[in-house]
Structure formats: C-alpha cells, structure tokens
Amino acid sequence: MSFILGLTGSIAMGKSATAALFAAEGLAVWDADAAVHRLYGPGGAAVAPLAALFPRALAGDAISRPALAAEIAADPGALARIESVVHPLVAADRAAFLAAAPGDIVVLDVPLLYETGADALCDAVAVVSAPAGVQRARALARPGMDGTRFAALLARQLPDAEKRARARWVIDTVTPEQARAQVRAIIAGIRREAADA
C-alpha cells in the first residue's frame, strides 16, 4: 500500500512546479486539474452531462471552460450543478489512479484539497507557500489575471495561514532549489518512517 501524500497550495504559490519536482524524483503524481481537462476534452466523461445542462458550453466534442465560466457568472447556482456532475467523475479518476499507482509514495496534486475534503484520503499533506507579495506578483504575471480576479480566486480558497497550520509539511517555493531540497527531505522522511515501522 502506497503512502498517499496530498499536495496543495493557494493560487500562484508554486504547486504545479512542486508537483513536477516530486515527479522528477520518480513519484507517481495525480493532477486534479489535468483530470478535469481530460473529463472536459473530446470523449471525456463530463462532456455529455455538462452539455445537457449547459448546451452553450459545448464546443465541438468538448466542453469550453470559458463558456462554463460565463454560465457561472450569469447564474450563481450553475457552479453547484457543474460540481454535482464533475466531482464524482474526478473522484472516480483519482480512485483509478490510486488503484494502479506504482511505488511506495504517490502524490495527489489537488488545488482545493482542504476545501473539498480530499485531505481525508491522504496519509499526510504538504502545502506549498510563498510570501504574499511573491504570490501576488506571480498571479498578476499570468495572462488574463488582474487584481479583481485574483481576489475572487483567493476568496474561494482557505487562507494560506490555515493551510500551513493544517499541513504536516510546508514547502517554501521562493526558489526552485529550496523547494527541491524540501521535496527530497519529505520523500526521505516518509521512507525512513516506513522502514522504522
């Protein structure tokens, strides 16, 4: 049975880069965002049920994320209907990964890990973090991001301080070298504990 490590962090904290560091160390990583992209893409399991709810979101044989965002903006109840379709499909994708995942440690990369209760599936959680000024600068450097959108995204997420308090490990992502050293230390620590058990 693999040790399940949850990996999370607020927007622009460096989670994707940190997930790549775990993968570079040979760990299997399940990416929740990538799972949603597969579900929304051509042939994805979410395409037909979402198209039935929101016909304007269908673009060819896939679901348009910008069109769904427009539906949510127009109708506050749309998000709950989308989640009622997508969350079970994401859970099934994650379960399939965990059933097949090789290795003594696997990583669940989930942006809203605490918010969705997915931390209950994990043996421990690592949170990526950086100072607020670094986070804001990174976020605002992204295409299409502005202060209003950044604030709205932050409002949907648990505060960084709360995530840090709940996590077993906090990975500082100010520099890639620092993050890589912490990733290696976490992996070594988990393996050491397993050997001692």
How many independent structural domains?
Answer: 2
The H/E string reads: EHEHHEEHHEHEHHHEH
CATH architecture of the largest domain: 3-Layer(aba) Sandwich
The overall pLDDT, averaged over residues, is 93
Spatial arrangement of strands, main beta sheet: 2-5-1-6-7
CATH superfamily of the largest domain: P-loop containing nucleotide triphosphate hydrolases
Strand tally is 7
Main sheet record: 5 strands, parallel
What is the helix tally? 10
Kindly name the structural category: alpha/beta
How far apart are the first and last residues' alpha carbons, in Å?
14 Å
Give the radius of gyration: 18 Å
What spatial form do the alpha-carbon principal axes imply?
A: globular
Percent in helix: 55-70%
Given this structure, which CATH class of the largest domain is correct?
A: Alpha Beta
Q: Which band does the percent of strand residues land in?
A: 5-15%
Low-pLDDT ranges: none
CATH topology of the largest domain: Rossmann fold
